[in-house]
Amino acid sequence: MSVKLSAAALARLPADVAAPKYQRSDLRAGIVHIGVGNFHRAHQAVYLDDLFNAGRDHHWAIVGAGVRDPDVTIREKLKEQDWLTTVVEQEADTTNIRVTGSMIDFVRPYDIPAFLDAISEPSIRIVSLTVTEGGYYISPATQHFDPAHPDVVYDAHHADAPKTAFGLIAAGLKRRRAAGTAPFTVMSCDNIPGNGHVTENAVAGLAELADPELARWIRANVAFPNSMVDRITPATTDRERAILRDKCGLEDNWPVFCEEFRQWVVEDKFPAGRPALETVGVTFTSDVSPYELMKIRILNGGHAAIAYPAGLLDIHFVHEAMADEQIRAFLEKLTKSEVQPVVPPPPNTSLDDYRELIARRFANPKIGDTIQRLCFDGSNRQPKFILPAVADRLKAGASFRGLALVSALWCRYCYGETESGKPIAPNDPSWKQLQEAAKPARSDPMAFLQLRHIFGDLSGNPNYVRAFSDALSALWARGVRSTLSDYLSDKS
User: Fold this and answer.
1) Residue-level pLDDT at 1
2) Which residues pair with 98 in a beta bridge?
């Protein structure tokens, strides 16, 4: 008989499931986190659970929050189990299961007064976010905050009842300033280059539209540390729920399955204080950028490199893509010959070792990460993870043929049909626009490159246009396998 997860069930968990070692009644809130998805619960919430298990900093517990419709369901499911989460860490030969209890409440989504009350509490000294790469209102081409986005315009005209995370943060900071309460630190945990700077520009940029004086105060008084986060965490499906129930005897409404590896590098800029996370493996530094660039270009860029050929070849799981000799060889050659040379290594780090680590992590057969997940939101991910490396290779006068091929594979994917003729379900917030460009690009590659909000100046660079066009034409004329083979056999 299985055990249904709840606070009352912690004393009778299955023998191979670790429970919190602390009394959750002793915890006090110090962090409000916006975006309580799988990644947050496999990453920040786990580090804090480690800290609390060590008997440290019990006044830094998490209050969850959300600003999207899916957050309503997440809150309902987690409330049923007293905000607890089962985290299943899986490697090829090992499985570790734990229940984390670092979150103690969850503000009801769309309850603006309750959210503002929560972040106005003096005890809340950090507001953190995981709202995905596409949630920061960044123009893909300029990589700057977009003040003309409809959500931003709405919040600018409804500053006391905003809908976006950044409008709510600005409103909370305004309330704290009026009350004479020190501002909280705003910490992004999303995969965006310079995520602290991006978050500052979103919060202050939105405030600027409604209250320029508040915007100046935010820039002068609020800390926005940069951070680099890393842990492969696929979406939860009934498959994961069934594995936990049938093999472990535990029922969880929304368990999180992830790899064992995790990493968190944070700029040490917390004037309101922070938990002692360095005692549980977090790296605090004055400069996150080398770690961030390495991860974004090799891991996130690597995801794109294997995702689109695999998607076009009807491969479902990431580890299956890595078992494909041609796709694995494409990843290795691309990262070693085109990406690594434009990635300065962080201190005491071997890029060769890191590249090999990434390949092993991608090949983990137990994670069950899907190709569809990796293919999602290319319109936001390509300008962050692939195209900047192209720009650096252009500046260096070096080849970027493989990087151009990654983007051509993405274009071919956006056509909406695999090589076997199976339809590809919409998989991007801008799917309609992408398809409208990808269809004519079959005969005229410039139709896709004219998406200047994605490709920026590369759309007009003759060398890039030629490389992209050649790759896309080859994909349509000879297919994925032949095109990859041509790239892999090229010794130049």
Assistant:
1) 77
2) 18, 87
